[in-house]
Amino acid sequence: MPEETKTVLVERDGDVLIVTINRPRVRNAVNAATAQTLAESFQQFERDDSLNVAILTGAGGAFCAGADLREISAGTRKLVNAEAQGPMGPTWMLLSKPVIAAVEGHAVAGGLELALWCDLRVAAHDAVFGVFNRRFGVPLIDLGTVRLPRLIGQSHALDLIITGRGVSGEEALQMGLVNRLVEPGRALEHALLLAHAIGEFPQRCLRADRLSAYEQWSMPWDEGRRNELRHGLEVLASGEAATGATRFAEGAGRHGARAEKE
């Protein structure tokens, strides 16, 4: 299939997978076929042991305007199956490896939910985040009402969920909605640098700590403690920590410097 007709583009940069929503004429609104392809792309990322980090972005200066409402209006979108995948594709998945959103332009409605699904968000100063589906009576069903309060707190989340207003720039950063702000047009560039930096760390430990941080939300305190310890003991048993400790003892990573892998 010619690249210009593909609704999702996938490319590799070393150990980083870049997944691009490619429907720029509709600001990368996601129809059912695109959602399916997005889900399959991240399933493949999860299975590929040579990949450490993924980036999700959009073509043509927009991240994603949400679900394609024209498809919903025409009645051609199937009803949501609670036991299947998220309506936007990967949003109900918990991967074992991190994903970074590189956001230019609008990340609104279901597009906001896709950005929230990612572990980190690198955004242009003029990128816009918002629950724009508020004005059309379309609900958040890709974990937007769950992730948003957990990410930025109940007060900020309700401000966005109830009013449907857009936020960008410093306000999005101060809310915790964005992790890095960059100049317009450079979100992917900076996300790629961040992804490669993350990929340089010992991966077993990184993934165990990341997974524990997600799993603890559904656990009481002591269960969360025991779950964290279980993950940590698995890392220790793998020898990865001992190898890292030896590198430190030999002089790597002193005074906060990056400890490069051999």
Describe the structure.
The chain contains 10 helices and 9 strands. The protein is of the alpha/beta class and 262 residues long. Helix 3 packs across helix 4, helix 4 crosses helix 5 and helix 8 (203-215) packs antiparallel against helix 9 (221-238).
Q: What do the pLDDT scores average to?
A: 93
What structural class do you assign from the helix and strand content? alpha/beta
Would you list the SSEs in sequence order as H and E?
A: EEHEHEEHEEHHEHEHHHH
How would a textbook summarize the main sheet?
A: 6 strands, mixed
- From the alpha-carbon coordinates, what is the Rg to the nearest angstrom? 19 Å
- Contiguous low-pLDDT stretches (5 residues minimum) are none
Q: What global shape is seen? A: globular
- The helix count comes to 10
